[in-house]
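Any chance you could type out some protein's one-letter sequence along with its C-alpha cells so I can compare the two?
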Amino acid sequence: MAFLWAAVLSLALLSPSTPALPLQGTLNDRPIVGILAPEISDEVMKPFGQAYIASSYVKYLESAGSRVVPVRLNLQEEDYKKIFKSINGILFPGGAVDLQMSDFAKTAAIFYKMAMESFDSGDYFPIWGTCLGHQLLTVLTAGQNLLSKTLAENISLPLNLTEDATSSRMFRNVPLDLMKALRKEKLTGNFHHFGLETQDFYANKNLRNFYNVLSTNTDKVGLEFVSTMEGKKYPFYGVQWHPEVNRFQWKKELAFPHSPNAVRLSFYMADFFVNEARKSSHQFASEEEEEAALIYNFQPAYVSNITDYEQVYFF
C-alpha cells in the first residue's frame, strides 16, 4: 500500500480553490452513501465478526433521505473502484483502529485518493469523517499521525466556532438560533482519547492548506483541539464529535445530548452531508446490483447489553 500513501500525499499538496458545483437541475434525488466498516477492537464484539457498523450511523444517513451501502474490508482495489463509481459519498465512522496500518485506514486511503482524482476531473464525491474518521482524514492529508492525547471522553460541549464557520459550506445555512445555541449549549458529544491540537494543525503546511478549521474545543485539562473542519477545495468534512448519537444512542451514563437543539443539530448535519451526496451522479450498473449492495441485506444485532451501542451490523 506504500504507493497509495505517496499518491495521497502528493494530491494533498494541490492548491485549494472553490469547490465545483454540479449544474442546476442535476441533483441526484436517490443518493446512496457508503459507510466504511472498521475492524472490531472490542473483545466483547469479536465473537460476532471481524468488522462492524453501528446502526446509529445508518439511521443518521437514512433520516436525511439517503440509502446506505456497507463498505467492507479486504476487497480487491478493483472492487473498491466499482463501489466508488456506484455510491455518492462515503462516511468514515468512529472506532478504535490504527490510523496508518489497519485495513480500515488502508481502504480509506483508496477512497480518499479516488475522491480527489474524481473531483479534479469534475466529478463530485464527498467524504465525511466522524471521530476516528475525522482523525483519519488528518493523517491522510498530513501524511503522518500528528494526534496527541486529549482527555475528552464522555463529555458534551458547545463549539468554539472560528471566523471561517459562518461562511463555510457546512454551517452557513444553519438557522441563526441554532448557531447561537451551538456556541453556548452542550450539543456535541465527545468520546475520544486522542485529537489534533490546534497548534499542531497550523504548524503542518499540508493541513492548513487543505482544510479550514471551523471549530475548536478544549479537553478536560485545557488542551485545545480541532473539533470541526472542511476541505477548502475538496468536499471533505471532519467532526471530532458524534452528531449521530444525539438521536440514536441512549445509554444514560454516557454524555449523549438529547435536547431539542441537539436533535436539530444532528438532523442538520445529516441533511447537509446527504445533500452533498446528491451532487454526485454515480450509480450502480443495474437495479439488481444496487439492491444486492444495500445494507437492507444485513440484520443488525441488539448489543446494548454488552456495548455502548444499541444495535450493530457485523461483517
Notes: Confidence is low (pLDDT under 50) at residues 1-18. The longest helix spans residues 103-120. The radius of gyration is 18 Å. The first strand starts at residue 32 and ends at 36.
